[in-house]
Amino acid sequence: MTRLLIADLMKSEGERDAVLLQGWVRTRRDSKTFFFLEVNDGSCLKSMQVVVNETAEGYSDSKGVTTGSSVSVKGRLVRSQGKGQMWEIQADSLELVGGADETFPLQKKRHSNEYLREIAHLRPRTNLFGAVFRIRSKLAFAIHRFFNDRQFFYVHTPIVTASDCEGAGELFRVSTLDPKNPPLNEEGEVDFKEDFFGRAAYLTVSGQLEGETYATALGNIYTFGPTFRAENSHTSRHASEFWMIEPEMAFCDLAADMDLAEEFVKSVIAEVMETCEEDLSLFFNFVDKELKQRLEFVLSRPFQRVTYTEAVEILLASGKKFDNRVEWGVNLQSEHERYLTEEHFKSPVTVYDYPKNLKPFYMRANDDGKTVAAMDVLVPGIGEIVGGSQREERLELLLENMKAHGISEEDYWWYVDLRKYGSVPHAGFGLGFERLLMFITGVANIRDVIPYPRVPGHAEF
Ligand code: 4AD
Question: Which stretches of the chain score pLDDT less than 70?
Fold first, then answer.
């Protein structure tokens, strides 16, 4: 007998015999001569009701079949007499696969998300987290489909790297040196030449620089992998390990880059709304009552576009008291981004042409001498979800920028080479996978959309 999934059984068109269901017991309700089980197998939000009569094999020694235990049920799929479900299983036999005693922490009651983070190994067995992680999987698939359909190639950029793409110094070191007794050089500093890779190495903050090398060979590429930031941010939108999607396109400027970012965000949201209807209904009904409307609104309208300079003017004219100062040349803070997208435009906004002093070395200088061809997409409820730019493809200007940012030409010789050999205008962006998932589900904390969140002070599991 092959195992059938609840997701498929729920779509059944008629009653069927010889069904094998395997999953975990959510609840058990006992009557005199029979009991009901709610069994969930993870394939969908719905659990299957199983009716176990005293005539069923295994009935007499079913005491251990309790909340949290795993079971294997053989029986018949029949129309349910009960309310709330169309199908149920009349068990012919019930087997306890693995018991769970009364210490199982997910007894039938609502638990706070904070508590569930402490048992992150068990939380996917709840309705909310089961739904989050099924949607996460579907969203990843939608992303690959989006790029594959447009002839982008998927490139695996390295996770261990010697370069600091964003130049922010938020790097986790990768080292096998003995911390108690590291080798020292003549200056008395740790000698990383003796380290595993023969040089200082780190976990990547972005696959962009390596991505650029492949875009200038394969044309359009994207990366989709884990990235790491040793940034001491204690917010609901920052994680130390998160996944990023980074497309990079040869023969492309900032305008086309912004177009792609918008089309991408809309397309994957639309696909998830189509393929995850049941799971999303949980978020629409119980997490954020305005979520459905917000997603539909985002799909139906063009994103607004303003330059950084216009954004600053809007903020200054708003009459709002912000905690952080608004001034041309100063970074927009989360409160400013949220004002723009939530209050002023009430829609996603792409802000572009940022002051060059705020941005990394690789961004393309605009003719005004003050700004670079950078863009950020801001969305309501989250703020920045995408950051991207056109890259500096002119050798002289790139070298100047590197100098200004204190970046050694020697270390980045391969990146500079791209500007020497067949350089082309090119552009790309990075989208934070978890931030997009937060936007789609309305889940307010990044710790609740990644299986095992890594944030300052926490690396349990
Ligand atoms: O703006 P960022 O730092 O851009 C880059 O890393 C570029 N190299 C991307 C590129 O052009 N290829 O990060 C891009 C996105 C942000 O917009 C945000 O969505 C997400 O990555 N992000 C984070 N998500 C969760 N936790 C963090 N600490 C994040 N930092 C950035």
Answer: none
